[in-house]
Structure formats: C-alpha cells, structure tokens
Amino acid sequence: MDLKELVEIGEKQRNSAKKIRIHCCNAAGCISSNSSAVKDKLEIAVKEAGLQETVEVAKVGCMKFCGRGPLVQVEPAGTLYEQVKPEDAASIVAVLKGEEATAKTGNANHPFFTRQMPVVLENSGKINPEKIEEYIAAGGYQPLYRVIYEMSPNEVIDELSHSGLRGRGGAGYPTGLKWATVAKMSGEQKYVICNADEGDPGAFMDRAVLESDPHRVLEGMAIAAYAVGANSGYIYIRAEYPLAIDRLQKAIKQAKKLGILGSQIFDSPFDFKIDIRVGAGAFVCGEETALIASVEGKRGNPRPRPPYPAESGLWGCPTLINNVETFANIAPIVREGGDWYRSIGTEKSKGTKVFALTGKVKNTGLIEVPMGTTVRQIVEEMGGGVSNGGVVKAVQTGGPSGGCIPADALDTPVDYEHLRELGTIMGSGGIIVIDNNTNMVDVAKFYMEFCQQESCGKCVPCRAGTVQMYEILDKIYHKRANIADIDKLEALCHMVRDMSLCGLGQSAPNPVLSTLRYFREEYLELI
C-alpha cells in the first residue's frame, strides 16, 4: 500500500458517511449501563422512521462524561443526550423529523467539555474503534507513512525530543531521551513494549484510550519501532480489560490485512509486528522490569536497575517501554510538529494530560487538559464541585503512589514540578475528590492496604514495611494508638521509601506522608 491508496481509503469512508450520524458510546462505562441496547433501539427507530438513507447509528468510543452515561450525540448538530434508556431511542430519532424530544438532553458546551483540549482523545467518541477505515479517514497512519519515507530515525527522535513530551505513565522521564538511548544500543533484536497494565484505584484513562482509539496506540508503537530500530512489539494489558483486548486484537488484524503492520510496512523494508500479552492483574507488573519478567513467562518480580531495559530488557535485548498515553501522543506530534506540541502546557511540562476525574464530585469522567491547568479548575469548574453540597477537603492524585492535596492548595497548577512540591505525583492520571465527611487516616489506610496486598514480596522493606505501616494505621484509626506510634509510622515511611527495590515500595508511603503533612490533626484526634 502507498500513500495514495491510504488516502483513497479515507476518502471512500468520508464519502460513504451519511448526512446525519448518531454517535452512541460503546466504551466499558456506558456498556455497563446498557448502551448496547440503546444502540440497537436507535437502529430500529431509524429504520421505522424511514431515515436509513440519511441517518447512521454509529458505535463510538468514550464520550468522556462517564457519570452521565449512556451518552448519545447527534452530529453535525452536536445535540447531546444523557442517561439514555432504550425506550428513549424513538424520541431521539423523532427530533430529526422536527418533533420534540422527551429524552434527557445534555449540554455540549458544559464546562466539563469546554476546558478540554483533545490531543490524545481527539478521535474518542467520534470514530468507530472497530473500523480502521474511520481511523484512516481521520488522518490515521499518514504520520507513520511520513516517518518511513520522509524522515530518518534520528529525525523522528529529534522532533520528539523537541516537543518536550515526557512519559505519561507517571515518572515523567523525557520520552525523546528514552528513545535515543534505545536507538544507540547495538544488537539486531530490539523490542517496543506498551505498558497497558493500568492498576491504580479510580483510574481508567488507558482503558478508555484503548477501547476508543486502538489504532492510535498501534501507530505510535510503529513509529517508535522505526525510530529505535525494533521489529517486534508487545502490548501488556491486564485481563480485567476484555473490551480493550478485543478491540486491540481486531485493530492489529485489520492493520496487518492492509499492510500497515507486519512485514514490509507500506511496501518499505521496515518490519514491525505486535503481539498482546495478557496479565493477571498484579499491580507490581506496572513496574517495567516486573512487566518484562511477566512477558517472558516468569513471575512478575522487579529486578535491580541498572541495567535498565533500554540496555538489557526483554530476553536481554534493548527494550523501549512507554505507556498507552505516551504512545497515543506520538502521531499528533509527527503530524503537527514538535513546536506545536511544546506550545501547549508549562515551561517544563509540555502538552496535555488525560485524567480520570472521580470521587465525591458532581461530574465524573474522562478529561484532557493542558498541563498547568489548576486543580481548582478541574475539580470546581469541570467537576462541578463536591456532590450533595459538600466541601472539598482534599484531592488525591497518582493513585497508591501519590498523595493528597489539601483544599487550600487547589490553585496549584497540575504539572510534574508543582505536584512534586506538594508531596504527590501526577501518576498515570487518576484524580479522586475527597469531601469533608471523609477521614484522612482512613484514606491512608485504604491505600496502604492496597499496597501491602499488591507487594510482590521480593524485598523485605516493602514486604514487611507495608504490613507494619498498615497495622499502625489500623491501630490509630481504631483509637488504640499513642503518640509514639505516629513517630514509628513516619520512620517506617522513610525506611520503606528509601530502601525498597522498585517503585511500588518506594512510593507506597506517599499517601501516608502527605496526610501526615496536611492533616496531622486528624491523626492526633484519634490518639
């Protein structure tokens, strides 16, 4: 396949599109609320109204406003319907004939949407994730063609470095530097791995991207493989994401059929194949060396570094590992250029970030905002503030590896540097709003219970330290502790953080340390 054929596929898809398109969310959140039945009823209603020639019902990916699902949007009018039931289908279709709707309409200009800047999510909720033709019609795979025929591997890495993209898995390591390190390594065999082992409580960003736009991730991996000199890749995804796995499998099959993955991509000498490895849901396998061990068929234990995966990774070969969101940023950067991407965000944190906004907040769902957007703008403007008239007490970011931001710090910009100063991290992108009815010791205890259960047990500081921290937190929460226990808890936090082998243990004390820092009085009240 050449560029002309690729463009023709996109044009054919656009020309076949009907005048009116009814988008029905078919991501996991809305499916769990019966959106599949809504879609079926919409198709029946269109047929009964005799509108088959001008109206198409399309299943699309996540439409972001997850707490209001199932969601339906009529294009090009942009009319949004919320909490749609199967029996609402006839009413929605009747509007197209000039009748009045009885279905609950939403607001497409709601602050939840207007502050968003879709880069990673630009196709989410707009295309059918199971049709490669729709991805191509949206410009998909043209960036991959461009890098193969118009750019050298070094030029791709230079453009990525110039963009300022940092790893979206949580650590924020410069992506261009990581790619350059793998590219410099010698050896005939190199690998590219997509880390889709999203395990933070309250996080669903990567799942939504894979369910909504799987080809975007495949294209990013292929561009990465070209840049670093790899010919084989793996997507490591947890078994709890069956819909994402199914859509990835379909996407890989479709791309192979068109010659976009596999051997001689776009009739070039470049080969790249992608396989899926399904994990059993171990949180520690989000750590790159544990992930590699699991892909190799071993127990998912981390190992000491160095050597880093870039030097000795999968089966001892140089390996590039990035997470889902990082790969989903690659095609837009190639298409629009590094200058465009670095114009978004802050001085040191470029681009946008996808977050899962959850907890005690009115508007829950998926958001993508420029780096530097404040916590207050996210929680109070986009999220609508605390549900049931409550007051924000804290905002937890970064999952079990993160910390809690107090209410008086809500004007903090969300970027790597400012969050680190507050004692938390951005992590993969979970934001959980906590109200004034929540005890912060209980919050710390919840996350420590999670960490002790998910510890692989390889190193003593994490294996034993997380258990001891949990026991002290439980003792404090049930008013059986004394002031010496708080001192012991803090000492344990520093020991586990400084002595653990991998990121799980090193970051496990963060929720405890941040709650001790900002909500110490709640600990003392229970002594």
General description of the model:
The protein is built from 24 helices and 13 strands. It is α/β, with parallel strands linked by helices and 527 residues long. Strands 10-9-13-11-12 form a five-stranded mixed β-sheet. It has a four-stranded mixed β-sheet with strand order 2-1-3-4, covered by helices on one side. A hairpin with a 3-residue loop joins strand 3 and strand 4 (79-81). The longest helix is centred in the C-terminal third of the chain and has 18 residues, at 460-477.
Low-confidence stretches: none
- Kindly state the percentage of residues in helix: 40-55%
Q: Report the CATH superfamily of the largest domain.
A: NADH-ubiquinone oxidoreductase 51kDa subunit
Q: Architecture of the largest domain, according to CATH?
A: 3-Layer(aba) Sandwich
Question: Key features?
Answer:
5-stranded mixed beta sheet, Rossmann fold, Ubiquitin-like (UB roll), 4 domains, Glutaredoxin, 24 helices, 527 residues, 13 strands, alpha/beta, 4-stranded mixed beta sheet
Topology:
Blueprint: H1 3-16, E1 20-25, H2 28-31, H3 35-48, E2 55-60, E3 72-75, E4 79-81, H4 89-95, H5 111-114, H6 132-137, H7 142-150, H8 153-163, H9 175-184, E5 191-196, H10 205-212, H11 214-228, E6 232-238, H12 242-257, E7 273-279, H13 288-295, E8 319-323, H14 324-328, H15 330-336, H16 338-342, E9 352-359, E10 365-370, H17 375-382, E11 392-397, E12 403-406, H18 416-421, E13 430-435, H19 440-454, H20 460-477, H21 483-499, H22 503-507, H23 510-518, H24 520-525
